[in-house]
Amino acid sequence: MLCDSCKEREAVINLTQVEHDSKVTLHLCEQCAQAKGVETGVAVLKSPLGGFITAMGKGATSVLPTTDGLRCSSCGGTLKDFRDSGRLGCAQCYEAFDAHLRDLLRRLHGSSQHVGERYVVPGDVDTDPRRQLLDLREQLRRAVENENFELAAELRDRIRVLE
Amino acid sequence: MIDLSLLPDGGMSWLDASGPKGSIVLSTRIRLARNLQGYAFSQRARDGDRSAVLTRVEEAVAASDHLSGAVTFRLDQLERADRQLLHERHLVSKELAGLDREARPRPGAALLVRGPVGVMVNEEDHLRLHGMRSGFALEEAYVDLEAADADLGRLLPFAFHPEFGYLTSCPTNAGTGLRASVLIHLPGLVLTKEIGKVLQGLSQVGLTFRGLYGEGSEVVGNFFQLSNQTTLGKSEEELLDHLGKIVRQVIEYEEQAREVLLRDHEAIIADKIWRAFGTLKFARSISFEETMNLLSGVRLGAGLNLIPGLSVYTLNKLLIFTQPAHLAALEGRSTGDPELPTVRATYVRRVLEAEAG
Ligand SMILES: [Zn+2]
Ligand SMILES: [Zn+2]
């Protein structure tokens, strides 16, 4: 649908207003919506990273060398995959692409330093019996998957004791 | 057909209008994005890993203090109408419900709910915990959520980085993983044409707005969802405080706008509101979109005490049950039934007549 205002560009936001006796829906392009004083947030909605990823890729606005081929050894995803999809493949991608992501996070959030709640991963020595049980069950599933039946039997015994 | 009575409160308590500022703010919703160590993020993960993630989440939920006894909905096993129903109740995103495509959601896509807290599994992130409250209630919504998050964080290893915080599939959510949204009705600001300025102001203070159904949805019926734009570099409390402060200001602007309308244009406003009410009450065929827009006018009338004897609860109920999947379920129709607009008009009339007594 074309923009109701300029009739030139594709309409990307529908602004519905009740005027007089009827509701009026304006279909606006991003430029016209902004001109009317509505911050559309469309760029953000369409691709959560908007122009950031493109800017990263162009290299002109980024001081970082183009390293599209950079690959995360954990999930196999590349920096190019991320630029295409806007989604990272796994948590290790944050390590693999860390310089790029730090730069991007600063531009997105104004900072790359988390100051919220500090999370501590439950450790191996954690004595919470509930967690031990969940861990054992997970190990058991993996043992069965790998057809390590000896280990599986041992794990089953330990699970039975905890249960 | 799924049995929604399985949900402890039918998933409706957040719309009961009992919360603070209930006539202007419909609901408050906060979500936390979390991922498990050792698995690719949901979109890149193989089906087997997605199922393994769901199993681990289900086990942890069953062992937790705050979520044990939660009801599980496996979205890959639900018919489209049921998935749409859960989406219309704001319990799952359009994406997780797979409403944009023909194919069913992939294995592992699930929703676990207990009370005001829900967990979407294998959406963009492995876990999306959300808490909903009626009215304007950021603190209360966060208390519920924080307890559930702490619980699960002790039982599952979340992906966390000392510098970047909680790691998420999309870097726009990294850090706290927290997005808080307030669903607010702003007809006064729209009618006085102040809304553009207000929305523009929001982006300058780091907030963003969306339509009734969240990301990518359009603004209809003057319902806006206001939420924080950034998630990193500020603590959870700072993010909530900031949003709360701005929303209080927006509520104040809306109240002022309504006063101005009443003072300077009462006859025009009253006419608009009663026409909206009249159409709702006497229409014989009506679309959901038109229903929303008319409800917007009537809701303003109830808020200004121009329409006596009409509760905000009734209006909220209409807002939920005139949605296609809800109406179809209620009246034993299919969501594609061409008679749905007629059925909707009848339903609206019945509810309004019952309310009038
Ligand atoms: Zn235009
Ligand atoms: Zn990776």
Compile the SSE list and pairings:
The complex is a heterodimer of chains A (163) and B (357).
Chain A: E1 13-19, E2 22-28, H1 30-35, H2 42-46, H3 51-58, H4 79-85, H5 93-96, H6 98-109, H7 129-145, H8 149-162
Antiparallel strand pairs in A: 1-2
Chain B: E1 25-34, H1 47-63, E2 71-74, H2 80-88, H3 94-97, E3 110-114, E4 117-121, E5 127-134, H4 138-155, E6 160-161, E7 165-166, E8 178-185, H5 187-191, H6 195-204, E9 207-210, E10 223-228, H7 236-282, H8 288-303, H9 312-321, H10 324-331, H11 340-356
Antiparallel strand pairs in B: 1-5, 1-8, 2-3, 3-4, 4-5, 6-7, 8-10, 9-10
The site of one zinc ion (ZN) has 8 residues of chain A, from helix 1.
Give a verbal description of the structure.
- The complex is a heterodimer of chains A (163) and B (357).
- By secondary structure, chain A is mainly α.
- Chain A has three domains: 1-38, no CATH class; 45-109, no CATH class; 129-162, no CATH class.
- Chain A has helices spanning 30-35, 42-46, 51-58, 79-85, 93-96, 98-109, 129-145, 149-162, and strands at residues 13-19, 22-28.
- Chain A has a two-stranded antiparallel sheet with strand order 1-2.
- In chain A, helix 7 runs antiparallel to helix 8.
- The radius of gyration of chain A is 25 Å and the shape is elongated.
- Chain B has helices spanning 47-63, 80-88, 94-97, 138-155, 187-191, 195-204, 236-282, 288-303, 312-321, 324-331, 340-356; strands at 25-34, 71-74, 110-114, 117-121, 127-134, 160-161, 165-166, 178-185, 207-210, 223-228.
- In chain B, a hairpin with a 3-residue loop joins strand 6 (160-161) and strand 7 (165-166).
- The mean pLDDT of chain B is 90.
- The interface between A and B is large, with 54 and 72 residues.
- One zinc ion binds at residues 3, 5-6, 9, 28-29, 31-32 of chain A.
